[in-house]
Predict the 3D structure of the following.
Amino acid sequence: MEAESKDKIVSIEKPELIAPPDWKPVIMGILCNWCSYAGSDLTGTSRTQYPPNIRIIRVPCSSRVDPWFIIKALQTTADGVLISGCHPGDCHYISGNYYARRRFLVTKELLKMVGFHGHRVQFSWVSAAEGAKFAQVVKKVTDDVVKLGPLHLYKKENFNR
Amino acid sequence: MDYSNQIRDIAAKLFAEGKIDVFVGYRMSGFDDNQVPVVITDPKETSVLVFTEKSVFNLTNYLKADHTRNKRVGLVVKGCDSRSLNLLLTESQVKRDKLYIIGVACEGVVDDKGNKMQNCMECFIPDAVVYDEMLGKLQGKKDYIVNADITELATKGLVERREYFEEIFENCIRCNACRHSCPLCYCAKCCIDQETSTLYNGTNTSSSAFHALMTWSLHLAGRCVDCRNCEKACPSHLPLHLLHKQNEKVIYENFQNHLAGVEEGDRGAFYKYSLKDPDDFIM
Amino acid sequence: MKEVSYFPGCSAHGTSEEFDETVKMVMKTMDVEMEEIPDWNCCGATSAHTLSESLSYALPLRNLVLAEKLSNDTMTIPCASCYQRMKATKVHMDENPELAARINTAVVGEGNYEGKVAIKSMLQYCYEDMGLEAIKAKVTNPISGMKLACYYGCLLTRPKAITQFDSPEYPMSMDRIVEALGAKATPFDFKTECCGASFSISDTDIVLQLSGKILEMAKESGAHAIVVACPLCQSNLDMRQHDIEKKYHVKYDLPVFYLTQLMAIAFGFPKAKMMFAKHIIPVDSALAHIGEVIEEPKKPVKGKKAVQAESEVE
Amino acid sequence: MARVGVFVCFCGANIADFVDVPTVVEEAKKIRDVKFAIDYKYMCSDPGQQMIRDAIVQHRLTSIVVAACSPRMHEKTFRKALSDAGMNPYLLECANIREHSSWVHQKDKKGATDKAGDLVRMAVAKSIANEQLHEISVPVTKRALVIGGGIAGIQAALDIADARIPVTLVERSPSIGGRMSQLDETFPTLDCSQCILTPKMVDVASHPYIELIPYSEVIELDGYVGNYKAKIRKKASYVNFKTCTGCGACSQKCPVKVPNEYNMGIDKRKAIYTPFPQAVPNKPVIDAEHCTYLLKGKCGICAKVCEKGSIDYKMVDEVIEREIGAVVVATGYDLWDATPYEEYGVGRYKDIINSLEFERMVSANGPTGGVPVRPSDGKVPKTVVFIKCVGSRDKAKGIEFCSKICCMYTAKHAILLHHKVHDSRAYIFYMDIRAAGKGYEEFVNRAQVETGAVYLRGRVSKIYQKGDKLMVRGEDGQLGQEVEVEADLVVLATAVIPDKGNPALARLLGISYDKYGYLSEAHPKLRPVETAKAGIFLAGCTQAPKDIPETVAQASACAAKVCGLFAGDTIKKDPMVSTVSKEFCSGCQNCVKVCPYQAIVTEDIPLGHGAKEMRTVAKINEGVCQGCGSCVAICRSMAINLAGFTDPQIINEIVAI
């Protein structure tokens, strides 16, 4: 489905919903402290540029990410979620990312079934050395979400700030 | 499939031998030809016990209740029920030596209208996997079949699926009957009820239903045994099995054919991992 | 009674007729019914895969598809080169569905390849499916007294990923079979060295050099003769032996037998049926050793590890 | 009511050039709970920190947000500032507006400013849920356990003991000394290995702070940093060490001969034996697998000849316990079995040996009296071919990594060969010469020039026997030609692999190991001697192939780490650990299963207030917990929370913008 027409952006899941003209997507990025957060810092130190739509949250390990963080983010503020951790085998906490990987796959497939586009929730492994990769990943996720349009699914209209 | 007499005899015998304090089984509802679970503490009452293809409920749900907790319990389990029992055993919720389990080689149960239940038609473990005594002729394991509704949903478009589920979540009244009827929802205090969770916020909009049901189904992912107690309990008749069966399918296909509770000591798919787990969905 | 499909390959009807004949004798003795693939075609040999990858798979594939139409679950091939091409095609087809889809269309009309027939060289079939014990049981005329250097060549066990049989560097299956026949297999280091193969015609000098080395080492090992299971090995070692002797001023006089020829002899078939007349190097001197008693060398070659594990008491 | 202070940093031009800092401050002021917001050129500078300290007092702030660089940079600095102002340091949150905003959105000032504002909002929201945390103090048992008595273990034990910290040194074999005691001379100085090692071995035995437990193995390790409890199994030696004088009469008379491990099986030892003459302790043990008396009940000669009556056939294995604070693992290396190199005829030809066998032969105390001989006929070889990288750097047959020490010891072997057999010649097939190290390149040159060793760059493709010679056929890559060397003896520099017991030991210790079995360090560059488990350190070849000086350096580094750990009576630990709310815990014990550090145990608590019936709940040992949060995410009851990263904190961040 073509989400983006000439002058208006519509939500891919809810075509009747048209984005306001100044709409900018919000990506919630949850990064593990040891690999991906360090990698994102390296992106900064090497001044690699990427779109400014991502909001980064630091967690100790990708295994700290409870699936309902993803659900919560999609329901409240985010148009897309990116979760990033250490490459398999590199986990600072030995095996955390292996457990996380299982949860992520199931969560993503479940969200896809209930009507979210698969690009709304994306995952990556970014090591502390992969500053450039982090920039690419953010760019890809942002581009994807821009194409999908605003997310307006099960949004909580007046959640507690 | 009628094991009523055998079960009555076994229950009476267990009481007589002093092996159990409580027996959990089925009796006729009294209103119609449907059955309801019954918790028997008086040996004289064993005559009300029945077991036919109308014995639909998963009785392991009663193991978490106060009147059976820490008591010696006799109970009847079908294939699916025994799988949830397996999980309760590994999750230390019940002790094996306190249970006397009558396993049934289940031929499938029927709904109110007398039609065979969908989960029974797709059942792959009809025989009880954990038991002290077995009733009926063993049927053996069958091949895993992807749920027909899931297969059908997969053919639908994104917008269509969204509309379908939006309606489901809108119709949820957040009564939590699904949770109470689920044998594997035994938490001391459910996460949705905890103040810190910010899950519920006191509204029953589609938004909070979405959040609660999604979280619930993810807590049961890799553990749900498809007994459909939740669906039977749901006053809004929501097709809750869709969420569970979707997770089950993804887990079966990706994580070494894992099926909840089939093997002794199984904890569910999220509490172990394999180096060979799929990695291609991650950038 | 076992049944097996049989792909003779071109050489079995030409240069290595004696191989073909003796294979049939051996199979008969071992109670194996052979069913020749009807209307088989060339495997493509060395030439096809230098020209076109697709062709090199398509040619054997047709044979594989034809083989699947027979009811047997195994196909055996005497020629090492044919075996190699067939097995390589099978392995690649099974592992690479994309290739399978592409090549399958090339043999359209014959049916679709399903991958249900196992492919084994004659050596592998004798070793794995017949079994040493069964072979031993059929021996009526043991060829004891013969010392034989077993030569496998490049293709029977290599590359390991394709053949999935025996050791790629120091195989022992043929040695075990000739020992089951009563002969003695000599420790022969050059059992998988290249004989020069298809350079036989285009650059004979290379063949003389490489095959010469093999003959030299076989002689050194004390062998009376060489045993092979490949028509091209046989022709290079046998046919070029005089040239080699002339070039390097040596005398080897090492007949080159097919494994099945020796099996047939041990099974009691008359020599006259072995088509020994087709051999360039006369075989009689080697066969004359049958019945001799071999003196065991004083120090048997033994693995160092084996010695270490033992302890002794004074 | 929360009173948050926000401090936005210019970072000179680093932030200010690309983010409109005053706008960020204005945005911050609009947040409900923010009572104070200000910007400054360098927040991390002393005046900047003073601003924070002043504002805390002046505005009675309850939490602080510093919007500046990455928390990985200055979190500690600002925490200290909070601490100085009398505030709990963990009430600080950092908004990373430099690495995550100004530096990566240099062409989009509005986007960068918006993002910085959002990051501040998120940090403020999180800080509201921050709790006061306190560093965890863990008491320490000041005793170190060293596993392995090779040069690494010896050095670590001596260095720790010299700091007057008691050490328990556990060695699997009857004597300490390890691989180094098997070597003849060492590169690049060619000093005698025994001469430099044996004094250290004696020091270990006589050191008042070292408890040497030979012929024993660690079988269990419980506890956490500073408070480990180790179980050590002392194998039965059947010899009473207290009365034994080490006279050796028993070994002389023992009739059973067994291949001698110390000499790589080249000669035989007895069933009752000391591994080598300089062994420490110099007491014999009976090898129960081969002793006729222990196997069949007949013989008993050693007991008869022992004047002291020290032989005790009834001795059994004994398990002893030690309370320790830290562990140094130094289990050393082994050589790879080259059998997969079938084209070399490994296993078929006696005259193909590995480098340690050669080392024993040329060693003065070796089985051949220091002269290399051919195992097949005992003749002295004149032409010796050395093949390097057998197994190393070979994905197809061996292992991918470079074994590091082979280039050097092969050069040494060439020199030693020349010293022992003057009219010999060494041919060395190599892939590369890796001689990085002080005096190493010169040493290789010396081997080439002085001894006339022929270095051939290329792989050996085949070895075959011709007469009593081994024909080594390989490639001389520099000439682009095939070469054949007629060799008397072939020495394979087989790959260095870790001890095969490493995976089991790693599981027992709760540390990780790589696919080859090498134990994994915590960080390849910055924490090369620590493991991911606090209080367990690695020395020597158990971590990766190393030569002797590197091994000794790492062992001393381990000692420094152990001494540092034991410097105080307690160990300070980050308070970011998980805690269980018992009332919510349902006791499913999934957290016990997923915890990578075995930090979670179970405890029984009353079912209800005053109830007699008990239920089981999880309990986290905060000394062991490393704060990964795996247990938090898998806890369905939400009974576990991770300090510093609680659910309310993270949810607050998510919903803040």
